[in-house]
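Supplementary Note 2. Why include the ligand at all?

Several targets in our set were suspected to adopt different conformations when bound, so apo predictions alone were not considered sufficient. For every target with a known small-molecule partner we therefore ran a joint prediction. The input for WQD is given below.
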Amino acid sequence: MKKKIVVTGGTGYIGSHTSVELIKEGFDVVIIDNLYNSEAEVADRIEMISGVKPALEIFDVCDQKKLDEFFSKYKDIAAIIHFAAYKAVGESVAKPLDYYGNNLISLINLLNAMKKYGVPDLVFSSSCTVYGQPEKLPVTEDAPLQPAMSPYGNTKQIGEQILRDTTFSDKNIKAIALRYFNPIGAHPSALIGELPRGVPENLVPFITQTAYGLRDELKVYGNDYDTPDGSCIRDYLHVVDLAKAHVVAVKRLIEGKNKTNFEFFNLGTGIGVSVLEAISSFERISGIKLKYKITGRRAGDIEKIWADPSFANRELGWKTISTLDEAMKTAWDWENKIRSKKV
Ligand code: WQD
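The joint prediction is reproduced in token form.
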């Protein structure tokens, strides 16, 4: 029988790509999503790519009663992958209680439900923001965590702490936190991708929207950093590579291959790319000269960070395959397809 995996936030950006990869690997996917930042139609697009339409239950994981109803309906769940969360750094500074409330209550509710209904395994979306500005680069998993720069980042740190404490106190629960660097791009079919609400905060959607004509120009936040070209450096990884890491992590838990009950991994390419290099990549793959100007620094930006993914490479047998150009090309294809309503 197919193993059943619950994907919270499964119609969102990373959740939808992960649902596709899970289905391709023979899992039975059940999505829980409140559609706060996505659409039910994404389940149809997942079907167009994978041939299987995942079950979609529309409710908020913060609603304990609905969660109980869910677990009474769906039995024999092998594992949960928990994506559903708020994720905008700037918004979290303005609305901290929304962020702490949503991101932490959803996690606590799920863990309580796992205990109550005997679901043993959880994969959690964490972030490289837990490292702040690391002293040593590339950053390894044993780098010290820094005080979070935003309520959003703090919810990821506290979330990991909740998992550490829960898996310590209850040996029936195992968890893996995946610390994402900067996911970009879209599925090569251009049927699913990132669709930010309003003005994008992140670099790549801002680039593709500018090129498409939806924004006047991109602001490059600073060229006076201590980096070769003065702009900030990040580790951009293709969302499909990232999605595959979730399949590997969930299998590791189900097959009992985890070394401890709480593990965490850096998911990145290991390559640092500056903002100006990212723009060049976009211009190369699209043939478009991007309109941009250098402005002042953005408050709270880390100067440079990229992953040492060797622990994930070794332990999970996972590594990124796509290049920056390939990822950028899929982001551009997606932008074109979604705007021209050809999806
Ligand atoms: C990338 C670079 C900007 C927009 C993200 C997430 C955060 C966390 C880590 C998951 C920076 C520059 C951006 C623009 C620009 N991920 N930039 N002009 O800051 O690394 O954070 O990854 O938890 O939640 O938000 O990503 O895409 O915002 O910025 O110059 O209009 O692009 O200064 O150097 P960041 P980003």
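The pocket of WQD is lined by residues 87, 89, 127-129, 180, 182, 201-203, 206, 218-221, 232, 234, 275, 298, 301 (CB under 6 Å). The chain has a mean pLDDT of 97. Comparable summaries for the other entries are listed in the accompanying table.
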